[in-house]
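Give me the 3D structure for ABC transporter ATP-binding protein YknY.
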Amino acid sequence: MIKITNLHKIFSTEEVETTALNGIDMDIKDGEFVAIMGPSGCGKSTLLNILGLLDNPSEGSYEFYGTEVAKMSERQRAQIRKGNIGFVFQSFNLIDELTVYENVELPLLYLKTPPSERKEKVEAALTRMNMMHRRNHFPQQLSGGQQQRTAIARAVVANPKTILADEPTGNLDSKNGEEVMNLLRQLNDAGTTILMVTHSPYDAGFAHRIVNLFDGKIVTENIHI
Ligand code: ADP
Ligand code: MG
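Predicted structure for ABC transporter ATP-binding protein YknY (225 residues):
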């Protein structure tokens, strides 16, 4: 379970102070699929980055599976980022110089997984995302849909409890977008908790719950299981 309470995030530069998050409370149960929606600039990515331990809140608390994130060492946080959370971004974020196989293998290298287990896990993730036949290709040789499937394979290879996806279909046509959403739904059906930022009401329809943000606050929540 993920629990955030009275979360604030203020970005300060010399000239301006931006309140990106202004008091967010959220409980996310294991196995839930939550969509976060709202206009550009309302704080969606900031919220996802904090949930993914990529950034720290200015105020408020965040419990990740029972442990207060603020009390963790940087090492513990890094370990959670690598082993317990899978990230999927709009821009795929693959490494151009690495093949599909090598991109998917990366999290396991960080986790120091032994080679034979690594091979088994990478091949399982590639098979699940229907990318085995492209394993030796480089990202630039793939369609957008294939790149995102590779990114999802990388996100799931270490079998994380939670996947955070920031507009995962934002750069895809509708057919590839639907395929990516079906893959996310299959992962959720198999028990993975998913938090997804999206602009698309169609994609949000895959979630159990839609949280609408405006100006750094939750304005409405719709539940539609
Ligand atoms: P969304 O993802 O909903 O479009 P963001 O979470 O990216 O919105 O941004 C929320 C607000 O915080 C915006 O006003 C944005 O300009 C500001 N912001 C985001 N990241 C930073 C940063 N690193 N430094 C300063 N301001 C930021
Ligand atoms: Mg964003």
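Residues 174-189 form the longest helix (16 residues). Let me know if you want a second pass.
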